[in-house]
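INPUT
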Amino acid sequence: MTEVGRARRRKEDARLLSGRTQWTDNLRQPGMLHVMFLRSPMAHARITRVDVSAALGLPGVVAAYSGQDFAAEQGSLPCAWPVTDNVVIPEHPPMATSEVRYVGEAVACVVATDRYRAADALEAIEVDYEPLPAVLDMNEALTPDSPKVHEAGNQAYSMQMTVGDIDAAFRDAPVVIDRTYVQQRLIPSAMEPRAVLANTDGDSFTLWSSTQIPHILRVMLAVVTGIPEHKIRVVAPDVGGGFGSKLQVTAEEVLCLLIAKRLGKAVKWVESRSEGNLTVHHGRDQIQHIQLAAEADGRIRGLKVDLLADMGAYLMLITPGIPLLGAQMFNAIYKMDAYEFGCTGVFTTKMPTDAYRGAGRPEATYGIERMMDELAAELRLDPLEVRRRNWIRHEEFPYTTISGLTYDSGNYEAATDKALALFGYDKLRAEQADRRDRGDPVQLGIGVSTFTEMCGLAPSRGLGAANFGAGGWEHGSVRMLPTGKVEVITGSSPHGQGHVTAWSQIVADSLGVPFEDVTVLHGDTAISHKGMDTYGSRSLTVGGIAVLRACDKVKDKARKLAAHLLECSPDDLDFADGVFKVRGTESQKSIQELAFAAFLAHDLPEGVEARLDSDATFDPENFSFPHGTHLCAMEVDTETGMAKIRSYVAVDDIGKVVNPLIVEGQIHGGIAQGIAQALFEEAVYDADGNLLTTTMADYLLPSAADLPEFVTDRTETPATSNPLGVKGVGEAGTIASTPAVVNAIVDALRPHGVHDVQMPCTPERIWRALA
Amino acid sequence: MPRITVTVDGVKYEEDVEPRLLLVHLLRERLGKTGTPVGCDTSNCGACTVMLDGKSAKSCTVLAVQADGCDVVTIEGLGSNGSMHPMQQAFHEEHALQCGYCTPGMVMAAIDLLRDTPDPSEDAIREGLEGNLCRCTGYCNIVRAVRRGAQEMGQAVRTQ
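OUTPUT
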């Protein structure tokens, strides 16, 4: 039985289940001190005075600093994606020195012997502010007389692309749908709050951080602080979820490093949840103006998208690029003659936005999938029928879309047929009609989402063309230990995904060794010296394949050694189940015997080193394009506005599957986060720019009681851009589910004249939409 | 400074504590019991759930002095002789954890739920775990795990 495809229970679990964890907050260093930050209570203000002196005399306080104390060395937090020629990237000091631009921005800090004393001392710091006007509304921010967030104005960038004759597509079009949707601001809310521990031996530095990107962070810390890269080691120990929120180079990481340098001591900072809600980058926050022109039979002629995207107060690591990750996704799985996309990035006095699960693609998918339902309603067609008339048929792959991506594979018909059968579509439609006829106060709605997405970020050439400040390759290495066991090192840095298990399966098959004989190391730049880390559903399609390539090189070396020892030509050897066999004979050497022979090095052929160890990078030629059909049935009480998910079916096509258990888990979690956007979550700022949703009591994350059982299944159309035929799965559920849910709510209420409900679709909003 | 006596995972401790010290910080910072994490500080997420005299409690919202004379069991004190508690095993079998940060609290809350409801329905499990948040799993596999754990524990009781 091959390991790939098998529902292996995870190697990661035993440790996590018994509390033997290495969260950054669990780590200690000798003489370690605790850092706490004082944060701005103002959305926008000039700092006129910071006085830390009263804090210095308090018990346990070792040091206290203001932004001015770091002004000479703290640099500017990086933006690695200068998306356009006209992009404005303002200075972003890790600790504010003269002006604050969002509530929560750090203005001072205390270093003390423990966190209780540090908290006490923060109270003693005095800061004087001269208030400046908050800038909160994107449309107002772009008016000429708006107060400015930065000297250069409130527009961060603007870009426009047009493909085909968009004017012709809209001219005399039998149907034009014109809608505006708001993607509310979200707080990613990984369960583990951020934490940073920095230590120094006086010359070099180690920084442990709850991060998705230890490798990128190392490079960026060197660039920002001027500490040479080879003097910095970054470790991502156990990381408790990320969802994009830990794809960042944060103020606290830079400042902890600088404090450790200044004091020559280990310092730790651990975020409180309120601090996290204020200062972990937020997600989404777009206003989408979308126009769709179609023929009378529903075939799409053209699509125009105009986005306003809230950047918040600064451009962080990839802030400006997030909405543009949707630029080629609004056309989704549909064929059309013309497409226009425009985006304006806007500065406001709020926490910066950046990557959150799906990053640009959920927004695009929501926009188009809502529009397809509107088109269906306009034409009085079934929403699936409108989609069928427009989608790329399975025999048309590979297909180059209007926005210029080449989808390598897919089968939308198969996924949809399977989903319909599991869902009982016709029966639910019949029930819906019955409830409508009876005037049942509880109406039934059916929501459709036939999504695709681009993921597995890579390819480097494409990222370069988009001005992205890094490549998209991944690195893997495989060490054959003398006893025949295998040590795998991956540049992909997991935070809950299960890389250790999945990579073990891949390696076990490739080298023909037992699953149990493989160990996987990651997340420490001293061990995994090269990597591009984990985000954009890239780990398996890029990092997993890098490991597979390294295995190929191990086998090449082993083959040469085997041929020498067995006195045959390398071409005469067949490799299967971990054994090289001389064709037509019983002569053989196992990979374990060859590992030991390489270690002994007593009898190596010319040009063969004393090791089978190998490493490789992989850089795919294309993104991967998972797709699927998600169907949601929603019961909506028209008297109370209460909406309840009755059933949810997801059929996803993510190509070949390495571990179906892990895949199902990713889909489940993704669906939950997408549903959460549709029904529950919203970061709310008041009129003065204060965040109101600073705790989990205010920001509603769904519990088990708020969600249903999900019915999931798969179709399998292999990707052609990698040798395993795999596609990314980390974000698919989140991308697909939000429009499925909102489409279901609107479908339930359409006979009442409702054609939109703003997310999150709370009972109050639904009730008001009906009023 | 008040002196408290508290038993944690079978070991008795005498500690001088500030009145404001939280139980979770006593466990983590003083006793080195870092298996119990802090998720939200406001008792919404339940990551810090431990057993306090046999009942689940969110240790971020209990003062250490309130635990004086109490018996505390953390995730580190479950299982015996190196083997996992049936509920831990069920979470493993059903893939009911991803990042694992909510897991200690989720497992403790699940065991507590079974104290009152030894054979819970899916709905009862969902309602019963309402005070414990998970951001990774979407809860489906957690519900399955609790059902499996309940069956295993019920089986164990019947065998005894």
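end of record. The radius of gyration of chain A is 27 Å.
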